[in-house]
Automatic annotation (TrEMBL):
GO terms for molecular function: amidase activity. It comes from Lentzea sokolovensis. This is Amidase. Keywords: Hydrolase. Its EC number is 3.5.1.4.
């Protein structure tokens, strides 16, 4: 039997039943990577010798009667996570020889759960792109169409899952970096509530490894099934043991409902700042139709929805100002002059990005205060609804575009070009207020490319969108595109 495309839950069941060993699963995964990854280029750092040793130890532990959530299951991790003895570069050539001495918190949690680490997956330079390529490891291609990107910045992880390279992966999400690759590659991902899962050790190689709280970014699970997302999130969730983990443990509330017909869902497919492409719009409609057919309450409009234009503006300001602070730029005075030259009437997202490059601390505090108002608005909305269904990006996977100036790139939405980074507005809808969002497959485009949507849920009620995803998968088969 071929195991490579089985879910993690199915592999755990087979391992417990003695139908397969971890060594057999690991050898099959390694053989598939060695056969297929030359053209996909998802696994940028291989760790096969240690993986085989870990699989052997997992089989020995199971033979002694031990059982852990992921005991013996082959997995991958995004390159940006520290793994002792493996390079962590974030795709930045000056750090190609950086070898951390300790595992990231999430890598330790994976190992403690019994997972077998096959290697690390490719990322864009500094994790700062919606594609996945860098000068150290090259370009990762989309397994469905190698002329297209798998997304970013967790594109290597999504491509690995779509190719059968391990059953699970862990990534990170600041600008849709979990959700967009899942959407482009036809797999599942979950962006947890901000602060739910510890991030220490998921840090640029130029920075110290500290237990700091991140403003927008989260770490989260990726998988080939919705149920597997919950399995992996339960391993990942929890505060850092160096900080609030000393006093607190996570006990996520159960999902609000256990049946599709009990869910109250708001469906969105239009954004005031960017059109939604026809393929993605059809994906949203397929999910909405499945919900209606199951008896769920589905609405298309609500006066409780926070203003989408202001939400996108706030998100761009917080995203760009934070990214610039982490990765300093040159010619600051020129940027200040350019921002000062903008018309006060210019409120386009491009103008917002230019102003954000020189955002003052006062401006950032003001934006943070406005974010709290949006969070309160979401609390009111989620008193009436259980989830929001909406796009992740306006299009399926787009062709590779390696223009060295990302601000000059364009995204084609049904034949009309728009600024490249405008496509982040849908991802930012959940990221700016810190809400959980689950990316699920929603069929395919006429060209056969995967299409996904996101299910946004209430803060710290991550099991609600995850359960909705699981129930939709069970009812529809996951809207799988033909392989």
């Amino acid at each position: 039997m071929e195991w490579s495309f089985q879910t993690a839950g199915q592999l755990v069941g087979a391992l417990r039943a003695g139908a397969v060993t971890s060594v057999e699963l690991t050898d099959e995964a390694i053989a598939r990577i060695e056969r297929d990854d030359e053209v996909i280029n998802a696994i940028c750092v291989r760790d096969f010798d240690r993986a085989r040793a870990a699989a052997h130890r997992a089989d020995q532990a199971r033979a002694r009667g031990e059982d852990r959530p992921l005991l013996g299951v082959p997995v991958t991790v995004k390159e940006c996570y520290d793994v002792a003895g493996l390079p962590t570069t974030w795709g930045m050539p000056p750090h190609r020889d950086h070898l951390p001495a300790e595992d990231a918190v999430q890598v330790s949690r994976l190992k403690d759960a019994g997972a077998v680490l096959l290697g690390k997956t490719n990322v864009p330079l500094g994790l700062q792109d919606i594609q996945t390529f860098n000068d150290i490891y090259g370009t990762t291609t989309n397994p469905w169409d190698r002329s297209r990107t798998p997304g970013g910045s967790s594109g290597g992880s999504a491509a690995a899952l779509a190719s059968g390279f391990g059953a699970l992966s862990i990534g990170s999400d600041l600008a849709g970096s979990l959700r967009t690759p899942a959407h482009f590659c036809g797999v599942y991902a979950h962006k947890p509530t901000v602060g739910l899962a510890a991030t220490r050790g998921m840090v640029a190689p130029s920075d110290p490894v500290l237990p700091t709280d991140l403003d927008l970014a989260v770490v989260g699970p990726m998988a080939r099934s919705a149920r597997d997302l919950t399995l992996l999130l339960d391993v990942m969730a929890g505060p850092d043991p160096l900080t609030s983990g000393k006093a607190h443990r996570v006990a996520l509330p159960p999902a609000r409902h256990e049946r599709l017909r009990d869910f109250r869902v708001l469906v969105l497919d239009d954004h005031p700042l960017l059109p939604t492409g026809s393929a993605v719009r059809e994906g949203v409609h397929r999910v909405a139709a499945a919900l209606v057919e199951a008896g769920a309450r589905v609405e298309r409009h609500s006066p409780l929805l926070p203003d989408l234009t202001e939400a996108a503006t706030l998100y761009m300001l917080l995203l760009i100002s934070g990214s610039v602070a982490r990765f300093p730029i040159e010619s600051y005075e020129q940027l200040q002059a350019r921002a000062a030259g903008l018309s006060a009437d210019d409120q386009s997202l491009d103008a917002v990005r230019q102003r954000a490059l020189v955002c003052s601390h006062r401006d950032w505090i003001e934006a943070t205060n406005r974010r709290e108002i949006h969070r309160h608005g979401w609390r009111r909305l989620f008193a009436e609804f259980d989830a929001v269904v909406c796009p992740i990006t306006p299009t399926p996977a787009f062709p590779h575009d390696h223009d060295p100036n990302p601000l000059e790139r364009r995204i084609d939405v049904d034949g009309v070009e728009h600024p490249y980074f405008d496509q982040l507005v849908w991802a930012g809808l959940a990221t700016m207020p810190g809400l959980p969002a689950t990316a699920v497959p929603a069929g395919c485009s006429p060209e056969g490319l995967p299409v996904g949507v996101q299910l946004i849920g209430p803060m710290f009620e991550d099991r609600t969108p995850l359960r909705l995803a699981e129930l939709l998968e069970r009812r529809t088969g996951g809207f799988r595109a033909p392989r």
